[in-house]
Amino acid sequence: MSLAILHWSLFASQLMLGLAMLAALWRIVSGPRAQDRILALDALYVVALLLLVTLGIRTNSQVYFEIAMLIALLGFVGTVALAKFLMRGEVIE
Amino acid sequence: MTRLFPHPLLSVVLLVFWLMLQQSAGLGHILMGAIVGTIVPLAARPVIGERVGLRRPLKALQLLGVVLVDVIRSNVAVFLVLLSPRPKPTEGFIEMQLKLSHPLGLATLACILTAVPGSAWLEYDQDRSTVLIHVFDLVDADEWVEIVKTRYESLLLEIFP
Amino acid sequence: MIANLPLWLSILVSAAVVLGSALTLAGCFGLVRLPTFYLRIHAPTMGTSLGGGLILLGSALYFSLTQGRVVFHELAIFVFVTVTTPVTLMLLARATLFRDRVEGGSAVPPSFRKPEPLATEAEMQTGIVETKAD
Q: At the top level of its lineage, which domain of life is listed (chain A) (predicted)?
């Protein structure tokens, strides 16, 4: 019983997070400007991270945390570099 | 001692974070964490000018509580706006003068205002100590200024004098 | 998943995870449906504040209680995400303000600082630009 509840709620939440990723992806593709795409990319990173966390609960393993942490780090650095590029035209001054 | 540990609080936080990531408190991990906690603040010294410290830990806890309540409230408010079939929030820019001038206090305030979904910190001008804030659903600009002043700035002024 | 899971725990974890995902989904839909960039900048913070917080809380509860020890990993991720997202959003907002002001199209409040003159008279005549060290 309790296992079924967890199973179906995890299914529902993964479905919702998948839809959220699609929504962010749509914004990345349609733009209209560079900053919109970068904002959506940042959101996509975060949703992917959360999806991995729910996957960790489903498979009862903690391996996914390492990947989630990596995504968090890379997403931050990537978005900062892109924002910097929009501001100045170059990443390292 | 001050030369070796320019930011004692930062060193402790790094050590705790290291142990959290390793998920254990073995001797080896503590040693490695201590090394990290020593080297990183030394390397960060040119970037972080003044000593990182907390003057009033209790006030910081109170601020954390206030922020938690506001995050929940703001999330619900923005969620309700987004649920409507044609979301039409009345956006608006606010310019407000801040008494707060401590860099760490300003950084904390910027993070709080941006992390709360209802508002975003856009720009700060040091010469005029004025900040530009974008608000998702702006009803009354003066009320917003008052909220930021009473809820966050007064506490931050006490924490970072 | 493990077999003998207490009912209250599964309900608690389920509620946290579903609620968190719903908030994140609402944020990302906001990214699609909101009309201007400055409005859209508010949308992803739902996923990083309460949405992500609830999902990570559910995960922390689940692992702490099924493994019999306190699991901190989620706290580390949460702190990292909540501290870094405002930084990226602020940088992005400033870049957008800068670009909007240069283009001068949409209604954006004017810059606090006075724009620096592009070149002085002397530089115009001689063609030599003195770079200021800053």
A: Bacteria
- Between CA A7 and CA B61 the distance in angstroms is 37
Chain C closest-CA separation from residue B32 CA (Å): 18
- CA of C104, closest CA in chain B: separation in Å? 17
In tens, the pLDDT along B37-95 reads: 888 888 877 777 666 666 777 888 888 888 889 888 888 888 888 887 777 778 788 88
| ipTM reported for the complex, 2 dp | 0.85
pLDDT tens track for C37-59? 888 888 888 888 888 889 998 88
Record: contact A49-C81, CB cut-off 8 A: yes
As its CATH architecture, domain B57-159 has 2-Layer Sandwich (3.30)
Domain boundaries, chain C: 7-113
Nearest Cα to B117, choosing from B71, B65, B63, B68? B71
* Amino acid C134: pLDDT: 46
Q: Which residues of C touch B22 (CB under 8 A)?
A: none
CB contact under 8 A, A5 and C10: yes
Residues of chain C neighbouring B120 (CB-CB closer than 8 A):
38, 41-42, 45, 89-90, 93
The CA–CA distances, whole Å, from B68 to B54, C24, C27, C73, C74 equal 19, 17, 18, 20, 17
Residues in contact with B72: Cβ distance below 8 Å, sequence separation at least 6, in sequence order: C50
Rounded to an integer, the average pLDDT of A68-89 is 84
